[in-house]
Predict the 3D structure of the following.
Amino acid sequence: MQRRDFIKVIAGLAAGWPLAVRAQQQAMPVIGYLSARSPDDAAHLVVAFRKGLAESGFVEGQNLTIEYRWALGQHDRLPEMALELAQRPVDIIVSTGGESAALAAKRATSTIPIAFVIGSDPVVLRLAASYNQPGGNATGINVLTSALEPKRLGILHQLLPQAETIAVLLDPNFPLYESQLRDAQEAAHAMGLKIHALRAATDREIEAAFETVAQEHIAAITVAAGPFFDTRRNKLVALAARHAVPTMYHFREFAVAGGLMSYGIDLLDTYRQVGVYAGRILRGAKPASLPVLQPTKFEFVINLKTAKALGVTIPSGVLSIADEVIE
């Protein structure tokens, strides 16, 4: 081969390399990750999600692409984000951070597989036909967050048995707002308690809620589950400390951040599990036949350092049922 011809061949191959690389990248499966939370407060959960994906042999950036969309606790942003991912299109939508994201994804597509993390019954929400046989394009995990509201209220009652009124902080824009309020009212009635319902969908409303609790000398507050409050974790913990209000939360993250108590599921393991499900779907499994999972492990966490700062004595009966005590 003449030297001139050899150079032309090499140049032609080199020119084709970028095209080949782009083709390989386009062949990678793409996950649309739709979350009602924020990248800052959910960073550790994304790590757990990637761990679950790795169990199916998928590693972001190597043989998988993930397109992230974060609503930052604002429910009204989710429908547009879900539609954008569906039109891209992606191979699967993973919806996290509660019902708002899952419902937005379901409305955006009836064909793209969906793996969700929600806090209530997917059958009632019409995300699945049944737990064992979801039957459509969506399956995932019900972490029972909303169903545990009465349990959290009951623990607060055990902590402060003389309290006549306990406040409940709710997000009025959250899809489960009405059922959360109703469950809290029914549970309080059964315990002989009064409920003071406080509503907050903005930072200023959160501040006003804690000011109300302090001004009216309400004994304690329980923060209802919801992605808006998840994105305001540090703010909620700081306000509870400032106003010296014993507060119950729904995830361990809050107690670790300085909140008094939390009762809920192992969230890291949940996100790992949804990563496993996403990997199985990318390998060919159909959401219609993957059963909706429910947690079997629950965590009651007490922050003793915060209790001392608040001047709250934890009764031995409450302390004895704690799964973790933060000194």
In short: The longest strand covers residues 30-35. Residues 114 and 138 are 4 Å apart (CA to CA).
